[in-house]
Amino acid sequence: MDFEKNIYEQHGLKIDRDRVLTYSQLSCPLECRYCFVNDLNFNQKRNTTYLTQEQLLLLEKLPGEIKTIMLGCDTEFFQSKEDSLDALRKLAGLKKDISVITKLNLSRSFIAEIKKVADILARNENILVFSVSLPYD
Q1: Handedness of CA 113, 45, 101, 51 (dihedral sign)
Q2: Higher confidence at residue 94 or residue 43?
Q3: Could you give the number of structural domains in the chain?
Q4: DSSP reduced 3-state for 20
């Protein structure tokens, strides 16, 4: 498993117990005073997708003991609504729980789209954990 962990980590996927934390290198636009990400990751970029094709392929191959995919560990996951929904839809079929954190205000129509993904997960006996954190000021 250590060899597999190294492959995942080389692509920004950190396996931690029964979950995988995703790191996108997508710069966060919020500039929260308390944020530690820029101290940890010097490869932050703008105009990149949240999950690369390599990351998606590796997530499809996660061992069965990994139960949860955690999104938004290094950035604001919903800064590109279209990209984030696309990623959620792709991940919904993997039969893993998904955890997402955001600080953004999301419209009712966008939340309705997220609910559709949650419904797919529920049919697979999985859940979408959706956390909204406090404002960044």
Answers
A1: positive
A2: 94
A3: 1
A4: strand
